[in-house]
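Now for one record:
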Amino acid sequence: QVLGSSPTVGRTSVAIPGMGMAAAFLQSPAPQLSVPAVAPLPLQRPVSRHGVGLPTPGTHASAAPRPGLASRAAASALGCAAAALLGRGRRQLHAAVSSRHRGRLSTASVSVRAVAVETIAPSTSSRKVSGLGILNSIDDLPKTKALGIEFRSTAGFGAPVSMVDGSFEEEPLRIYHKLDGNPEQVLRTLCATIDTMLDKFVWKGVIGISITKEVSGRLGVFSDDFAILETEVGAMLTGALAGKVSFVHTVVHTDAAGYNELVWGESAKKEVWDNKSIIVCTLGKHIGAVLFSDGHRVRSSPMKSVARLPGDAPDGRFMPPDPGTPGYTEWTDAIDASLADILESVPSVDQVIMLPTGRTAAAQGLTSNLKPTLHRAHEVAARKNCTISVSAQTPGSVIRGVALCALVELESKQVMKSLETVLNGDDALHMLSEAQLRVIFDKMDASGSGRIPVESLQEALRLLGMQRDMEKTIDELDGARTGVVRFDGFLDWWSREVRQARVVRVTSADAFKSLLSKTPPEGFGDLVVMEVTFTFCRSCRKFEKSFHTFAEEFRDVRFVQFMANATIGGMEYCTKDLAVKTSPAFFVFRRGSEEILMQWSGANLERFSSKLTEAVANARVKA
């Protein structure tokens, strides 16, 4: 059933995820169901996927920030949609889901209720955030928010999450379901749950989905390897959601819980993870484990990812045994043995962080009672000079983590395309920030050691679908023939490749500022002309070929294309610092300074040539 409608943007095709609902809910008297009541919110101007007002091509747009979601929701929470749903509050809510799986149409029933969850208060600071916890750079993420969905065998739990501070954009929603039947029927049920959330949050953007081993087993995917679970289940969900959302990424909930803990949790402080190896374990029906090295997720490690723990789970609802019972001793002994095996399998580790999740997180006194029972694990940890801690988790932790995982993966896919342009020798290359280059390097560094053996580099490029003469690549990256490629060498190689390009593309404000601070390469002067473009700007696309032609004409000027709405930091820099109101917009700088020497806008060829000729002449006079 349609719970609300998305407002329409007239002049651009920019998506407005999450802006069609108010975060207000009316509790139904019915004992089994609370029906969410929603009301449309007013929209005054186009909004980017980052939640920032966009300049419309050829027109001017207000620079004022949009009102906060909470205040707008309060004003419209009892609107027409709420009134329409009030009379139906006693009836069970059913979500009809259209499934293209094997060409049949199916429906699934789900019960819906709003859930009060402790949230992180939205930041009131306008300070630009460059990094948070293990996250290299928030500014370089492709979007400010994503929809996080945590799937367990009994329910789905989801909400849109802001990456700036980890707060929920709207009140989280829990949807109960039964994963009965064959894998095809289970997939339909999960899709029905997802579709209900898409309707509720009016969402078409990025989605991160966390799964448990139990859920993957119901889908017919059985493995103790997280990579296999994530790949195979991810392919199912991505295929089922094709055309409904812009990007889908699926991870096991241990990954999601680990990212949340190391970015927004108690372990986000740099001294906890910097230059250290951290094992994050989740506890519930299974014990899951992931390894982080110096803040980077290690995808290839000798430790076992998941192990089954004893305990009853009627109807899939696992609860740990009560302390003092024989079942509790059996459960903690199994945790102790599994954790000791995990520690033994890793050559070195500095800390183990144990995170009770799901219903296990609600067990009374678990964070204080569990550690004293881990006798064997503490013995192994002492030999390795490793500490063990148990961190309390709040409801919604996995939602935050999986939303972040999805945006990190999307950023990874986008910057990997930049690597392909370098390997293919394109004449317009990407100038990436160090944080973006770190994403590329980490993608190929499966061991998380900070060193990529040359043979592993060759295999990584092959798996990424990139073909190049490997002897030439190895000569460029490992001229001393040490057999390994380190990040510093990769960074230098990238810079050398980009410096020779006639046109440089950037999506990061940090990358552009870095370019301005560097000495110009041979054949270039001090002047830099930057074109600010947006993905939705038709005039920008039409001007692109002419921009390259001008780059050949003015060969001593560095030409830069800045795709403003590709990253959070890029959008903020262009709309706030540069005050761009029309596109394409052009700015002339001199290296060594961020002072704007000249600026103009519009895709007029004669004006561009005249303005740039004037800037070059002025520079020569001052020289």
